[in-house]
Every structure is written in structure tokens, then in C-alpha cells.
Design brief:
seven-stranded mixed sheet; about 35% helix; alpha/beta; 8 helices; 7 strands; Leucine Aminopeptidase, subunit E, domain 1
């Protein structure tokens, strides 16, 4: 399928979800509407509430994985690996648009957020108030804003699989945290650093938002990604070390999660996967979900 045909297909899927699938799902699953209403938008990084761990054993060492995978496919593999794992403890990162819910998913765009919206009810959870009387709009996002969404229903397979509807017994729910990376940060001539110290500091704060929201909601398994390293043009060689530092050196997060997965589609030579494998090389576990 060429790029034009793929975009038309994605736009068709979006329309079909909005006009047909979402209403049908909401009519059959009252809890889905309840979970949508429990979405929380944080206008900035939530405050640190103290403590170092959400786990019963604070000495637990977080297990790290870096895999070539779609984010929801990775979450599904975790669920299938252990059917007893509580779905309410699995949280997927949505690398969000700061301008509008779902980015360009309605028009057939193909970044990570759009792919997640095609596959699931995520759009309904993150669109926020649709009228002034319902509250302040969540968009555009503030610099360190983030949105917590629980019980997002995944009902289609991946873009690579054609976005086919999943059988009901194959559908699953997970939680999502949505944060937008910096769009097109200015880099030094050698591309080795952010040209502005403020961009480096803001990126670290955005990643803190991701981790703090997940910890605040007592998530045990995170499915993260190459944050901002696609359409937003953040170099993975700069992003991966920030995740590493916060997750392994910062006392707030070093024992906060049981497992952290980085699900990064390689696209046959993408430059995003290797820098994350390199950053976490000494800590990586063997993936036994495949």
C-alpha cells in the first residue's frame, strides 16, 4: 500500500470508529463511559507526593526491556504472558500532540498517537470537554501537561495488520498516559545536544510528568517509547539517556515500577531502537513474550 492509499485507509478507519464503532461500544459497555469520565488532565507536572515506591517490596529491581513493537502490541504480549496480571496496572505512553486530541488521526496521519487512536477508544478519553460549560479545554497542552486515561479499550489490530477488528475475546483494556514532546527542538551543529539548555530541562520535566502520573496512579508495568523521536524530531541519543537517568538514578523512580518496556518500531533500520538498547544495555532482560 502506497503512502496515499495508506492515508486514505487510516482516514476511513477513523471515520468508521467515530460514526459506528464508538457508539456501538459505548452502548454495550457502560463501564467504558465511566472510565472515559474518569480521565484526568494535569495542566502541569503533578507535585511529588513523597515516597520512592508504589510496590510492596521497595527493594525490587525494575526489569527493563527494549523491543521492536507497536505500543499496544507490546501491552497485549504482557497481558498474554500472564493472564493474571492486573490490567489496571499496565500503562502505555501516548506520545501526544500538544495541539489536538489524536493529532491528525482523523485525516489519516500515521504517527504513534494516531495509530493508538485507530486501534482503541483512546480518542474518547483524551478529547476532554467539548463545550465551555463542561470545563476548560485540555488543548493546546501546557509545556508540562499530561493526561491520565484508564480502561482504554483496544479493539483493532495494528497498522501493520490492517487495523482489523479483534474478536471480542481478544480485546483488552489498559491505561494510557498522554504527554507531548517538544516539537522540532533546535540542536547543536553536531546534533549531539540541545542548543538551548531550556529545551533539555523541559524535556526532562516532560518525562518526569509521564513517570509521575504513572506512579501517582500506582502503575506497575510501563510501556514507553522513543518519546518525540519521530515526527517531532527529537534525537533518540538525547532522549534515551534522560529516561535512563530518571529511571535508574532518581530516587523517586528507581524502585517505582516492576517492569519498564520501551516499545519502538524499527521500520527496517529506524535510528530510534538502538540508542535505547545502548542506554539500558547493562540492565536489559530477555524478552520471553514472543
Amino acid at each position: 500500500m502506497d503512502k496515499l492509499s495508506r492515508g486514505a485507509h487510516y482516514a476511513f478507519i477513523a471515520r468508521h470508529n467515530l460514526q459506528t464503532i464508538f457508539p456501538a461500544l459505548l452502548s454495550r459497555d457502560p463501564e467504558l463511559q465511566n472510565s472515559i469520565s474518569r480521565s484526568i488532565h494535569y495542566s502541569s507536572t503533578p507535585p511529588h507526593t513523597g515516597g520512592t515506591s508504589t510496590l510492596s517490596d521497595p527493594s525490587h529491581r525494575t526489569k527493563f526491556y527494549v523491543v521492536d513493537s507497536d505500543s499496544f502490541d507490546c501491552a497485549e504480549r504482557i497481558v498474554l504472558r500472564d493472564p493474571n496480571v492486573p490490567r489496571e496496572g499496565i500503562c502505555v505512553l501516548n506520545m501526544a500532540s500538544h495541539q489536538r486530541a489524536g493529532g491528525g488521526w482523523i485525516n489519516g496521519a500515521s504517527a504513534q498517537e494516531e495509530a493508538l487512536c485507530r486501534r482503541s477508544t483512546l480518542f474518547l478519553h483524551i478529547e476532554g470537554p467539548k463545550a465551555p460549560e463542561q470545563g476548560h479545554s485540555w488543548y493546546p497542552h501546557g509545556p508540562t501537561a499530561g493526561t491520565w486515561s484508564e480502561g482504554v479499550l483496544v479493539f483493532r489490530n495494528s497498522d501493520a495488520g490492517g487495523n482489523k477488528m479483534l474478536e471480542e475475546d481478544k480485546r483488552f483494556k489498559c491505561n494510557v498516559v498522554s504527554v507531548a514532546a517538544i516539537l522540532g527542538p533546535v540542536l547543536t551543529p553536531d546534533q549531539a545536544s540541545f542548543a538551548k539548555t531550556s529545551d533539555a530541562e523541559l524535556t526532562r520535566q516532560k518525562i518526569t510528568t509521564i513517570l509521575r502520573i504513572a506512579k501517582l496512579h500506582r502503575q506497575k508495568v510501563l510501556v514507553l517509547g522513543a518519546f518525540g523521536c519521530g515526527a517531532f524530531r527529537n534525537p533518540p541519543t538525547l532522549i534515551a539517556p534522560i529516561f535512563y537517568d530518571l529511571l535508574t538514578q532518581d530516587a523517586e523512580f528507581t524502585h517505582a515500577f516492576e517492569e519498564v518496556w520501551f516499545a519502538i518500531l524499527d521500520f527496517g533500520g529506524s535510528a530510534n531502537l538502538v540508542p535505547f538498547r545502548n542506554a539500558f544495555a547493562t540492565l536489559l532482560e530477555r524478552d520471553t513474550t514472543t
